UniProtKB/TrEMBL annotation:
CDD domains: ABC_Metallic_Cations
PANTHER family named in the record: IRON TRANSPORT SYSTEM ATP-BINDING PROTEIN HI_0361-RELATED, METAL TRANSPORT SYSTEM ATP-BINDING PROTEIN TM_0124-RELATED
Keywords: ATP-binding, Nucleotide-binding, Transport
This protein's name: ABC transporter ATP-binding protein
GO MF assignments: ATP binding; ATP hydrolysis activity
Sequence ranges assigned to domain ABC transporter in this UniProt record: 11-244
Database matches in Pfam families: ABC_tran (PF00005)
Family, per entry: Belongs to the ABC transporter superfamily.
Keyword ATP-binding: yes
Length: 264
């Protein structure tokens, strides 16, 4: 699985280690995402998924044998101009007194600087991002008034304005109804089809196995990685150990995993 050339990886993370408050949070985590791939990062609460994404963004102190985007070291400028980031909804300051359009425009600050007017080309990108995330009709609404699903779509639109080559999504489906999940899944798959490398953390394992090209099972370390079909074959022990669940947990059956004796 890891024998393909690093040169082709849109996102390449090698041997990432993170220690926070004296605790080892990530241990030698390596992963990659190809251009055009939709990849899920799954694991229990506290597994280190958010820490991994924030390390890629340079927001958390870490050590690594190398992180690169399309072969270029992932420095602050590369992150700012090529990587789109959708944080968890609760991390965003929703009481900020601005409109949906202004929030989406704020996704341009990496290249514009605060307070500068967006050029025509940027305005086009803002309209396109709003259209794709289906928030155009909300453009002049104040941010604080939105529902959870509307907020999530605004965060996605804001991440799309720079037309990123890499998109990092932190639990984009949490608390969303089915139509909004379908809309966003279609959007993420569409972005991947256009060549974007999409990496998403999620607790929705069924949807991830259904929608994603590859998945990483993570809890401090990478416990397994592969296509949905490959991961259904790794053995139920790996899933039980990663997610710290019992053999009787109905999730295992719902995921279509084989039992210890090889039966479903
Ligand atoms: N600033 C910090 N100082 C110390 N420990 C931290 C810090 N930030 C996170 N951690 C710890 O790192 C571990 C991983 O947290 P992280 O948020 O990355 O997990 P996660 O997989 O995203 O979990 P969840 O599914 O609950 O969002 C947790 O045990 C958390 O308590």
């Amino acid at each position: 699985m890891h024998n393909d050339s690093h040169a082709h990886h849109a996102l390449d993370v090698r041997c990432l280690n993170v220690t926070l408050g004296g605790r080892h949070i990530l241990d030698d985590v390596s992963l990659h995402v190809h251009a055009g791939e939709f990849v899920a990062l799954i694991g229990p609460n506290g597994a280190g998924k958010t820490t991994l994404i924030r390390s890629i963004l340079g927001l958390i102190p870490h050590s690594t044998a190398g992180m690169s985007a399309y072969g270029v070291p992932l420095d602050a400028r590369t992150v700012r101009t090529r990587v789109g980031y959708v944080p968890q909804r609760h991390e965003f300051a929703w009481d900020f007194p601005i409109t949906v359009r202004e929030t989406v425009v704020s996704g341009l600050t990496g290249i514009l600087g605060f307070g500068r007017r967006a050029k025509l080309e940027h305005q086009k990108a803002v309209e396109e991002a709003m259209r794709r995330a289906d928030v155009t009709h909300l453009a002049s609404r104040p941010l604080g008034e939105l529902s959870g699903g509307q907020k999530q779509r605004v965060l996605v639109a804001r991440a799309l304005v720079l037309r990123p080559d890499i998109l990092l999504l932190d639990e984009p489906f949490t608390g969303l109804d089915m139509p909004t999940q379908e809309l966003l899944n279609d959007l993420f798959r569409g972005l991947a089809r256009e060549g974007c490398a999409v990496l998403m953390t999620t607790h929705d394992l069924i949807s991830a196995l259904d929608q994603c090209d590859r998945l990483y099972l993570i809890r401090e370390r990478v416990r397994a990685a592969g296509t949905p079909d490959e991961l259904r074959e790794v053995g139920v022990d790996v899933w039980m150990d990663t997610f710290q669940i019992r053999e009787t947990n109905p999730l295992l059956g719902a995921l279509g995993l084989r039992g210890k004796d090889g039966k479903e």
